């Protein structure tokens, strides 16, 4: 009688796990050793706004001022941020249930609000989609995971990985998602705004210069 013995499935055999090459180990160690740094000029950090249960974000353009706008979609509703001043300029707490999340639309969009009401905004995040990862003048954004599951967002001017130059000169580790799940990261179509969204907040950077009226409005709201 032939004796049958149980065999471990190939996917469960530790000896079949891929190993990193020496080059890959050096790259991982380099990324792990890079601390979070402020984004370089001309970028300036605007805000890190708490958005509980965030599902995704999308970009729009203000029809009056031309400012980049960032729309945040969450389980608690929709919000719209001015990406030049950092202000939240519109809020919809009870959107239509049939159109409240991007997965209900074939193009992953949600209805706009505030100054972009009557339009639709494509949303990138939990349900898919994506944002721009490069700008026309050479900035690049990458999400790397040298220590899963904590994603790191890198901003660079050297064309992206492998980043041969020193950290802090041609590439910068600007965001470390250690407390929440990363939802989306990318530039606006204009290339003037950079947004990083997690399941709990949205962080914004801009290189656009606010107009005098924008500065005045921001000072008034702060007072």
What is this entry, summarized?
The chain is mostly beta strands and 223 residues long. Helices cover 10% and strands 36% of the residues. A hairpin with a 6-residue loop joins β2 (54-61) and β3 (68-74).
Give an account of the 3D structure.
The protein is mainly beta. 10% of the residues lie in helices and 36% in strands. The protein contains two helices and 14 strands; from the N terminus they run αββββββββββββββα. It has helices spanning 22-33, 212-222, and strands at residues 44-50, 54-61, 68-74, 77-82, 88-92, 109-111, 120-122, 124-125, 140-147, 150-156, 171-177, 182-187, 193-198, 201-206. The strands form four sheets. It has a five-stranded antiparallel sheet, with no helix packed on it. It has a four-stranded antiparallel sheet with strand order 1-14-13-12, with no helix packed on it. The protein has a three-stranded antiparallel sheet with strand order 9-10-11, covered by helices on one side. The longest helix has 12 residues, at 22-33. The chain is globular and about 55 Å long. The model is unreliable at 213-223 (pLDDT under 50).
Query: First CA to last CA: what distance?
Result: 88 Å
* SS-derived structural category: mainly beta
Number of helices: 2
Query: Any idea what the radius of gyration is?
Result: 21 Å
- Strand content bin: 35-45%
* Sheet having the most strands: 5 strands, antiparallel
> On the 0-100 scale, what is the average pLDDT?
90
How many E-type strands?
A: 14
- Tell me the overall shape: globular
H/E topology pattern: HEEEEEEEEEEEEEEH
Q: Could you list the spans in which at least 5 consecutive residues all have pLDDT below 50?
A: 213-223
- DSSP helix fraction: 10-25%
């Amino acid at each position: 009688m032939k004796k049958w013995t149980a065999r471990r499935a190939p996917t469960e055999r530790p000896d079949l796990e891929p190993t990193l090459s020496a080059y890959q180990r050096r790259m991982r160690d380099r990324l792990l050793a890079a601390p979070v740094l402020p984004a370089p000029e001309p970028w300036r950090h605007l805000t890190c706004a708490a958005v509980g249960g965030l599902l995704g974000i999308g970009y729009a353009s203000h029809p009056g001022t031309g400012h980049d706008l960032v729309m945040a979609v969450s389980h608690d509703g929709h919000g719209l941020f001015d990406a030049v001043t950092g202000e939240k300029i519109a809020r919809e707490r009870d959107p239509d249930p049939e159109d409240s999340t991007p997965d209900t639309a074939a193009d992953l969009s949600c209805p706009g609000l505030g100054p972009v009401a009557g339009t639709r905004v494509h949303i990138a995040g939990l349900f898919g989609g994506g944002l721009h990862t490069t700008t026309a003048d050479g900035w690049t954004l990458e999400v790397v995971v040298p220590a899963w599951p904590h994603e790191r967002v890198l901003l660079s001017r050297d064309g992206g990985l492998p980043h041969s130059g020193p950290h802090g000169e041609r590439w910068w580790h600007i965001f470390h998602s250690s407390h929440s799940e990363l939802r989306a990261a990318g530039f606006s179509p204009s290339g003037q705004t950079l947004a990083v969204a997690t399941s709990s907040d949205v962080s914004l950077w801009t290189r656009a210069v606010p107009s005098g009226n924008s500065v005045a409005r921001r000072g008034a709201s702060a007072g």
